[in-house]
Write a structure and sequence with these properties.
By secondary structure, the protein is an alpha+beta fold. It has 15 helices and 20 strands. The strands form three sheets. Strands 1, 2, 3, 4, 5, 10, 14, 15 and 17 form a nine-stranded antiparallel sheet that branches.
């Protein structure tokens, strides 16, 4: 019965899903309810350059057919950057592939195969662009159309038009010659003449800001390159289960250019910088040959500096390298100042003080292991005790139980008696039909992964494995099509790392 319910949930979610299609630099969604591509955005562009949606139309005998109105089959091919759609339009089968290039991350390809369309009279394939841009000039360049952040390939069979939706229905359009101004309520239509000699079309959209270059490859070459990319990627992790490999692939996509970075960008928000450190940490776990970047400890943000110190120590440990203690001694006054200021901000509950408390506590513990703590900060024991007390008072109720699942990650620094009580309390919460933590009868994957990690760190290995592999099952059985969550991927791979599998 449980499996029947899960299957029904899965089918319902797939039929109505928003599918996230991304290569890490470009992202868009396939809207499963309305059968359109929407929210097309490049990582390097601002909000006004988003395309609200992109639709495929066909025109035959002065009749407009919208692909979105017809039955659609959809699926990913290998990575989340290759998406396949099939339409049955007027009893004609049409296939479309959306490919976001891994080779050149500024490129998006849309290939439409019309080989099985048996219309005898000429017809046109139309790409309808609906922007969020209020108004803008469209330029007809030598070998492409320039439209805001989009550089759209053109060929001898293409023509670009601008019209309101109503005017387009009545074939009242403005035709681009050299430049054309698009008004607030107008849409952009790219028409392609389809002939029996060429029953397919390949559209290339390039997000490059300067001098966009177009590949002019045939689609089979483009698709083959992407499939080979993922094949070689997966070969690096041949010894792992399929679901673990899929999570590593998701990590690659969510981290994008950060995946192989060997420098840290300091001029960003604290949240983004910490995210960058997590990405770097996972990268070194997955690739022990990865270069550890040179850390800059001179950021004006003392919390950010403490995160830098901590992750530097963790990365050196993973790589099996020893800390150059001379670096510590040369910067001892700076480190003391950062510790003092971080401690003060935690006591005052400034910002994300709970997260900062955990990392601060673990940083002091790392210094203790290196026999450096007395040299740097003699009162560390008292500081740690006070942090534990402050965190305990925040996350536990009067009965000594955790107030909400979001606080699971903070339990690990509490006293043994508090940890064991709450581990027992949380394990009872997994006594349900799904055998994981739930919120309002919905599976809470992040909380369950946090608990699995807590259990493993505290010697509850059997319980941890049971919980983790339940979550692993649900991740593989009911894939989250519409988002990639760094926290979920990070926790999943950290659980795998603690088990010695990566």
């Amino acid at each position: 019965m449980k499996k029947v319910v899960l299957l029904l949930l899965l089918i319902t979610s797939i039929l109505r899903a928003d599918y996230l299609i991304t290569n890490g630099e470009i992202a868009l969604f396939y809207d499963g309810q309305n059968n359109i591509l929407k929210n097309i955005k490049s990582k390097n562009e601002n909000e006004r350059d988003i395309l609200s949606n992109l639709q495929l139309l066909l025109i035959k005998d002065y009749k407009v057919y919208r692909a979105r109105n017809y039955y659609t089959e959809t699926k990913f091919i290998n990575g989340k950057n290759i998406f396949y759609m099939k339409y049955f339009l007027d009893n004609q089968e049409i296939e479309t592939y959306v490919v976001l290039s891994n080779k050149n991350k500024e490129k998006l390809y849309i290939y439409t195969n019309l080989d099985k369309v048996n219309w005898k009279t000429p017809y046109k394939l139309v790409y309808k662009f609906s922007p969020l841009i209020k108004d803008m000039n469209i330029e007809n360049k030598e070998n492409y159309y320039k439209y805001g952040a989009l550089n759209i390939s053109k060929d001898n069979n293409s023509e670009l038009l601008v019209a309101t939706e109503r005017n387009f229905e009545n074939f009242k359009v403005k035709i681009l010659q050299t430049t054309l101004f698009k008004e607030l309520d107008e849409r952009v239509y790219l028409l392609k003449n389809i002939s029996n000699d060429k029953k397919y079309d390949l559209l290339e959209i390039n997000f490059s800001k300067e001098n966009p270059k177009f590949s002019y490859q045939n689609f089979n070459e483009i698709l083959s390159e992407e499939i080979q990319f993922w094949k070689k990627f997966e070969e690096r992790y041949y010894f792992l289960r399929r679901n673990v490999i899929n999570q590593i692939k998701n990590f690659y996509l969510i981290s994008s250019s950060n995946y192989a970075q060997n420098s840290l960008i300091m001029n960003m928000s604290r949240v983004e910088y910490i995210r960058q450190l997590k990405v770097l940490y996972l990268n070194v776990i997955l690739d022990r040959n990865a270069v550890i970047p040179k850390f800059n400890f001179n950021k004006y943000d003392y919390i950010q500096n403490v995160y830098s110190y901590y992750y530097n120590l963790k990365l050196l440990s993973i790589k099996g390298k020893e800390l150059d203690k001379k670096v510590i001694l040369d910067n001892i006054e700076k480190i003391r100042k950062d510790i003092e200021e971080s401690y003060r901000s935690i006591l005052n509950k400034e910002g994300e003080w709970l997260d900062n408390s955990i990392l601060f506590y673990e940083f002091l513990s790392e210094l203790e292991k290196l026999n450096l703590i007395q040299l740097i900060y003699k009162d560390s024991f008292l500081i740690k005790e006070e942090i534990v007390l402050k965190v305990r008072n925040e996350i536990l109720n009067n009965d000594g139980n955790i107030k909400k699942y979001d606080y699971i990650k903070y339990l690990n620094i509490l006293e043994k008696v508090d940890k064991e009580r709450n581990i027992s309390y949380l394990l009872k919460k997994t006594d349900n039909s799904f055998e994981v933590l739930q919120n309002d009868e919905k599976i809470n994957k992040i909380a369950s992964l946090e608990l699995a990690l807590l259990l493993y760190k505290n010697g509850y290995l059997v319980e941890s494995d049971k919980l983790f592999y339940k979550v692993d099952y649900f991740i593989s059985f009911k894939e989250d099509y519409n988002q990639l969550q760094l926290d979920e991927i990070f926790l999943y791979l950290e659980n795998i790392h603690y088990r010695g599998l990566i």
